[in-house]
Design brief:
The protein is of the alpha/beta class. The protein contains 9 helices and 5 strands, in the order H-E-H-E-H-E-H-E-H-H-H-H-H-E. Strand 3, helix 4 and strand 4 form a beta-alpha-beta unit. The protein is globular and about 55 Å long. The N and C termini lie far apart (about 45 Å). Keywords: Signal.
């Protein structure tokens, strides 16, 4: 696979900075802060009997950044030291860390920095998201053409944001991605087999939208099938997050969950009020 296709394939499998659904929409008066933190004790009638008092979860919202001066990194360190987690859950693939704090941030961004802090404090870190499981779930919720469009469009948006590619480069990259799509979009081999078919499918299913290579990253989907898949993915991620956090809390662990800000769960999910640091 060529370099451009690898870039796109990587983008396709990363839930980075709203690359896919706007999962876990969280609204609060403090939405202008760089992070939103909430600490939740275990709740519910059965929690008292099964959950040690130390079990808790802290959520920390981040945005994609490779700037060492971004204030979120200093505040993440503060939250890490204050919450004293025994386990950290993070998004995006685990590609390790670099030799120091600054290089980790400039090369690997917020996801790498989370793992860097975890290693510094001797805390285990676990990946929260599972793109393959998400894709398998969505395959049961959409027909092949719409599913393929959904993922290819988001890969295109992510690619354009990461590279600033022109229309010509974006179209060339999409051709390569479609040609190799059987690798990461199994079950869709019989549909949208080339760029002409992709363009035709886009016109059919997105008749009132802008040109596909112009779609802005993070913009709310206006097409019904895109909204449907966004909602399905949001629900799947919410359930997965809830289950993972509950498992750790019930084991008496202090959990730190670091998510894209747009992925933060609603406070009602854990029957508590989210608070933001000052």
């Amino acid at each position: 696979m060529k370099t451009t296709a690898l870039l796109l394939a990587s983008a396709l499998l990363l839930p980075a900075a709203s690359a896919f659904a706007q999962s876990f929409a969280f609204t609060a008066p403090q939405a202008d802060l760089q992070e939103l933190v909430g600490c939740y004790p275990a709740a519910g009638p059965s929690a008292k009997a099964t959950t040690p008092a130390a079990g808790s979860v802290t959520f920390f919202g981040v945005e994609t950044s490779y700037n060492t001066q971004h204030e979120q990194f200093a505040r993440l360190r503060q939250v890490f030291e204050a919450s004293k987690p025994t386990v950290v859950l993070f998004e995006k693939p685990d590609v390790g860390i670099d030799t120091c704090e600054s290089l980790t941030i400039t090369r690997l961004g917020e996801s790498g920095y989370v793992r860097y802090l975890a290693q510094q404090h001797g805390v285990r870190a676990e990946r929260l998201d599972d793109p393959e499981a998400e894709y398998a779930y969505l395959r049961t919720r959409a027909e092949a053409t719409q599913l393929k469009l959904y993922y290819l469009l988001r890969a295109c948006q992510q690619y354009r944001q990461n590279t600033g590619a022109t229309k010509a480069l974006t179209m060339k990259a999409m051709q390569q991605l479609i040609a190799n799509s059987a690798t990461f979009l199994p079950g869709t081999e019989g549909v949208v087999q080339n760029l002409d078919a992709f363009t035709a499918a886009y016109r059919q299913h997105c008749p009132t939208s802008c040109q596909w290579w112009q779609r802005p990253l993070g913009a709310p989907a206006t097409e019904a099938f895109m909204q449907h898949l966004d909602d399905e993915l949001r629900a799947f991620r919410a359930q997965r997050l809830s289950q993972q956090v509950a498992t750790h809390i019930q084991a008496g662990e202090r959990v730190l969950v670091v998510l894209d800000r747009s992925h933060l769960p609603a406070p009602a999910t854990y029957a508590a009020t989210m608070r933001a640091p000052r």
